[in-house]
Design goal:
Radius of gyration of chain A: 29 Å
CATH topology of the largest domain in chain A: Nucleotidyltransferase, domain 5
CATH superfamily of the largest domain in chain A: ATPase, nucleotide binding domain
Shape of chain A: globular
Strand content of chain A: 25-35%
Shape of chain B: elongated
Oligomer: heterodimer
Number of strands of chain B: 3
Keywords (chain B): Chaperone, Cytoplasm
Structural class of chain A: alpha+beta
Order of helices and strands of chain B: EEEHHHHHHHHHHHHHHHH
Strand content of chain B: under 5%
Main location (chain B): cytoplasm
Helix content of chain B: 55-70%
Number of helices of chain A: 14
Subcellular location (chain B): Cytoplasm
Organism (chain B): Cercophora scortea
Bound molecules: adenosine-5'-diphosphate, magnesium ion
Number of domains of chain A: 4
Distance between the termini of chain B: 132 Å
Radius of gyration of chain B: 60 Å
InterPro entries (chain B): DnaJ_domain, DnaJ_domain_CS, J_dom_sf, RAC_head, RAC_head_sf, ZUO1-like_ZHD, Zuotin/DnaJC2, Zuotin_N
Distance between the termini of chain A: 33 Å
Structural class of chain B: mainly alpha
Chain lengths: 572, 446
């Protein structure tokens, strides 16, 4: 963030919250005793639609404003967050078709709405920044009311591809709302932080895929989590497969159902009917995330005709197949982009409203190995509500940094601090298998930022004695084993062996046997050798590898519980 | 972070391993072993890192720019590859004719076609939306005609659905590469022309990788592999994109079923035609493939060579057999002759020996006669009998060599006593050898 901030409150005078300012929905969160909590606004909503609506000079926001999309679309502004800091020619107005349309005012994106009272009051033309300021002000007000203290400051989440210009525009909008932005943090990292801050979480080296599936966009990132520090390795951004594409699946379905009964009346052709249809379809979609059946009913859907219907989850998953599979391919593509394999992924965090959809998580279970944890409500009982992850992460970060001076935060998040070398290969130690084969034991994982230090304890040979500590680089490759082609003869033999009852069954199973894929370590260049002498029977050796900021490597090794040991340094 | 415990043991120190202070540096990490990346300034562990890294220093705006330039960028905005000029005719298209539109051209990625990645399609779509969304046109005061925008949406709908995309790719004439004509082939470039054609055809392959066509230097194995693959080609090409529209189920059911049947038959027919087309293409290509001719010639030459070699070998064997037979016959004849000679010569020798014995016996008998039977005056018949008896006895007891030896000793002797001494000596020898008994001797008693 290169812009100068307006002088904010002193650290002691701050009340800081976390904000997710989404294109569809926003959330506010605060921390109580280091635990993040998402705040419900005065309507009782924790997911607050990022929408403003003006009726008779009165401003509505959130769920109330969303309801006005049916009756008052031209004075309702929705899906504007992504326009911040963009010129008119580079915005996608697709989602604004059913509300106030974005306009080109000397290149700045603006909306013309009647926001003042009176039949013949002049409409106002508001820049997207002004709209954002008004909306953020409402969020801050809600938080202030809930906390009973004036909220002064916030950490706000943004997508990883938010440009400097977009960030500046957001900061300006927040400042105009009298809100100090302590820091803008990226969405996937906020989600990881929300999970890592849970008391039961342990600091671990892991590869995390964060799929942030929202209403108008899907953003997926591969994050290397190393010793509690996070590095984004690759990202993809998609505007085709998202919550509104799923809404559309249901819109088309129910429109056709309606037309079966009322031939020639297409509720999609009329703006108001379409708005009603969309509103109800989203509700039905959410209901299908929880139940296996959902009702759909709209009064006076089109031409004064009421319409009611039902749908079950299976049907929904069938008609939405292309969208569901689109999510899966998107997630696969970012892993490939990072140069990794599904076998490298330790966790998948599903974040964003659309991540409530069971089918999406279940499809992921099929492409990832059983060792990958899929963190979504339908696959993991300990999963955090995907709609709350970002706000929680932002609130946690806010509580971490609110005691620092603004200048201090600026310096700490400076690129000179954040840009550091990450080792390409793993660094590890060689151990020997029973058959005498050398195997690589990774100690520092690839893509670890330096400086870094890791320690392992490795058993000495059973008899003890002098042991060799061999430090090497290593990397992984994927070993594919094709299934043995099943000879007809052996099949017959198998049937004879098996009980009559389950012979057929086991046959079926072997038929769709897949190739086996494993991740194996390959030993690379040797860095150093060292000796630890006179290890006692059944003893263990503790080995520490330390990589400095300048890539110098220090190795220390000693018998656990003994004095002495060896130490050596490899200068970079 | 928790320390991990590894059960699989460390190696034992090899015999003779030694290093100063027990540490032997071998390699090191270099700049090339690391990538400059940006850590996210988030979380408690980052705060600790920042504290160490800053160390009370102050960084400037220049430092920021430099550091950002160093860092690997994970957010590339690469849209240069999707910037085709828009054909004004295309912009006039009617959305309801979407089936006939070139979806790739509509999205401005006609140079990629079936090769376009999903990401390219998405980026292309977004770019078109930014430009052609009706709300944007309206904002710019242009007509609110959204026909072309609908074309864009339709193109994207088809291309982002893998099933529909294959259906379209199956009949995408723009992606087709016609097999080279005779005229084209007349100018050479056989391998380049066919290669292009098969490369395009390979888009329908269910299995990958598809073997390459290769060139004149390809090995026989590769060429055989190629034709094997293509003569057994497993294609996903389908023809439902060309289906006639099926009427809504609200309308006449019979009519609906009729159209469906018609479509199914049409697909089948087109698929069969496509298989035949591919087959003909392969036949044409292989018929003109010099490599196949060359391999055949080489195979024939090799076969001929083998035949000639075989014939030569057979001839040689025959000749050798004949020669062997002749040699055998010759040897047999020679052996026979030699045996005959041997037989003859041994007969002669025997006769000679017999004559020698006779002659020697005559010498022996003569010797006693010359010695006048060892008496002076006329020898009595009894004396003669006794002496000759002993001579007979000795002669009978010795072999021809001994007779010859004895005859040698006796010949030339004239003195009776000397002769007698020789006889007595011989008799003594025989008695000593146990061949003659003392009592048998009558005259030559010592
Ligand atoms: N329980 C649910 N099941 C399925 N979809 C949901 C659910 N809750 C919210 N959504 C969908 O998630 C989308 C909004 O996601 P969100 O992360 O809030 O949006 P954004 O990131 O675009 O601001 C909408 O399409 C909404 O319909
Ligand atoms: Mg979001």
């Amino acid at each position: 963030m290169s812009e100068t901030r307006t002088s904010g409150p002193a650290p002691a005078d701050r009340t800081a919250i976390g904000i997710t300012f989404g294109n569809s929905n926003s959330s506010i969160a605060s921390t109580v005793d280091d635990k993040a909590e998402v705040i419900a606004n005065e309507d009782g909503d924790r997911q607050i639609p990022t929408i403003l609506s003006y009726v008779d000079g009165e401003e509505y926001y959130g769920q109330q404003a969303k309801a006005f999309l049916v009756r008052n679309p031209q004075n309702t502004v929705a899906y504007f967050r992504d326009f911040l800091g963009k010129d008119f020619k580079s915005i996608d107005p697709t989602h604004n078709h059913a509300s106030a349309h974005p306009q080109d005012v000397n290149g700045t994106v603006s909306f013309t709405i009647k926001d003042k009272e009176g039949e013949d009051a002049e409409p106002s033309t508001l820049s997207v920044e002004e709209v954002s300021t008004r909306f953020l002000r409402r969020l801050v007000t809600s938080a202030t009311e809930y906390l009973g203290k004036k909220v002064t400051s916030a950490v706000i989440t943004v997508p990883t591809n938010f440009s400097d210009k977009q960030k500046s525009a957001l900061l300006a909008a927040a400042n105009a709302a009298d809100l100090e932005v302590l820091q803008l943090i990226s969405e996937p990292v906020a989600a990881v932080l929300a999970y890592d801050a849970r008391p039961e979480a342990e600091v671990q080296d892991k590869i995390v895929v964060v799929a942030e599936l929202g209403g108008t966009r899907s953003d997926v990132a591969v994050v290397a989590s190393r010793g509690g520090m996070y590095t984004v390795l690759a990202t993809v951004h998609d505007y085709e497969f998202n919550g509104s594409a799923l809404d559309k699946v249901l819109i088309d379905h129910f429109a056709k159902e309606f037309m079966k009964k009322h031939a020639g009346v297409d509720p999609r052709e009329n703006a108001r009917s379409l708005a009603k249809l969309k509103f109800e379809c989203e509700a039905t979609k959410k209901a299908l995330s929880i139940g296996v059946n959902a009702a759909f009913s709209v009064e006076s859907l089109a031409e004064g005709i009421d319409f009611a219907s039902t749908i079950n989850r299976l049907r929904y998953e069938t008609i939405g197949r292309t969208v569901f599979e689109g999510f899966t391919r998107l997630i696969e593509s970012v892993i490939k982009k990072a140069g990794l394999d599904v076998l490298d992924v330790d966790e998948v965090i599903l974040s964003g409203g659309t991540s409530h959809t069971p089918r999406i998580a279940n499809n992921l279970v099929n492409i990832f190995p059983a060792t990958t944890t899929i963190l979504a409500p339908s696959t993991n009982t300990t999963a955090v509500n995907p709609s709350e992850l970002l706000a929680r992460g932002a609130a946690l970060q806010a509580s971490l940094i609110q005691e620092y001076e603004a200048a201090d935060i600026d310096q700490s998040t400076h690129a000179a601090v954040t840009t550091v070398p990450h080792i390409t290969n793993a660094i590890g130690v060689i151990s020997v298998s029973e058959s005498g084969e050398e195997t690589f034991v990774p100690v520092i994982a690839p893509e670890t930022a330096v400086p870094a230090r890791r320690t392992v304890v490795v058993a000495a040979p059973k008899a003890g004695g002098d042991v060799l500590i061999k430090i090497a680089e290593g990397n992984t490759h994927i070993k594919v084993t094709k299934p043995e082609p099943k000879a007809n003869g052996s099949k017959a033999a198998k049937v004879e062996d098996a009980d009559d009852s389950d012979a057929d069954f086991s046959d079926d199973e072997s038929e769709d046997e897949e190739e086996k894929r494993e991740k194996v370590w390959k030993i690379g260049a040797t860095l150093a050798e060292a000796a630890v002498r006179g290890v006692k029977k059944g003893g263990k050796v503790e080995i520490s590898i330390n990589v400095n900021a300048d890539l110098a490597v220090t190795v220390t090794a000693r018998e656990v519980g003994a004095k002495g040991g060896v130490r050596g340094t490899l200068s970079a | 972070m928790a320390t991990t415990l590894v059960q699989q043991p460390l190696p034992t120190l090899p015999e003779g391993w030694a290093a100063e202070k027990d540490f032997k540096p071998i390699g090191s990490l270099t700049k090339a072993s690391a990538t400059q990346r940006t850590i996210e300034p988030v979380g408690p562990h980052f705060l600790a890192h920042a504290r160490r890294a800053r160390h009370k220093r102050t960084f400037s705006e220049d430092d920021r720019i430099q550091a950002q330039e160093r860092a690997k960028n994970v957010e590339e905005e690469n849209e240069s590859d999707i910037s085709e000029p828009e054909d004004p005719m295309m912009l006039q298209r009617e959305a309801k004719d979407w089936k006939a539109q070139d979806h790739y051209k509509v999205l401005g990625i006609s140079k990629y076609r079936y090769k376009a990645t999903e990401e390219q399609i998405k980026r292309a779509h977004r770019k078109k939306v930014l430009k052609h969304h009706p709300d944007k046109k309206a904002a710019a005061g242009r007509t609110e005609d959204d026909n072309f925008f609908k074309c864009i949406q339709k193109a994207t709908e088809v291309l982002l659905d893998p099933v529909k995309r294959r259906q379209f790719d199956s009949v995408d004439e723009e992606a087709e590469v016609e097999p080279p004509t005779k005229k084209q082939l007349a100018n050479g470039n056989f391998y380049k022309l066919w290669s292009k054609c098969f490369k395009a055809e390979a888009r329908f392959s269910k299995t990958h990788p598809v073997p390459a066509f290769g060139d004149e230097k390809s090995s026989k194995e590769d060429v055989e592999n190629f034709y094997n693959f293509w003569y057994n080609f497993d294609s996903w090409r389908t023809f439902e994109y060309l289906d006639e529209d099926v009427p809504d189920d609200n309308e006449n059911r019979d009519q609906k079923r009729h159209v469906e049947r018609k479509n199914a038959n049409a697909r089948k027919k087109k698929k069969a035609e496509d298989n035949a087309r591919l087959r003909k293409m392969l036949d044409d290509c292989s018929a003109g493939d010099e490599r196949i001719k060359r391999f055949r010639q080489e195979a024939n030459a090799a076969k001929n060579r083998k035949r000639l070699e075989k014939e030569a070998a057979e001839k040689k064997a025959l000749e050798e057999a004949q020669a062997a037979k002749e040699a055998e016959a010759k040897a047999a004849k020679e052996a026979e002759e030699k045996a005959k000679l041997d037989r003859e010569s041994s007969k002669k020798a025997k006769e000679a020996a017999k004559t020698a014995v006779k002659k020697n016996k005559r010498v022996l008998r003569g010797s006693v006669k010359d010695a006048n039977y060892f008496v002076s005056g006329d020898a009595s018949p009894a004396t003669i009998d006794a002496v000759l008896g002993d001579v007979e006895l000795v002669q009978a007891k010795v072999d021809p060599e001994e007779i010859a030896a004895l005859a040698g000793k006796l010949s030339g002797l004239k003195v009776a006593d000397e002769i007698k001494a020789v006889w007595e000596q011989e008799v003594q020898r025989l008695i000593a050898a146990g061949k003659v008994k003392d009592s048998e001797i009558k005259a030559f008693k010592a």
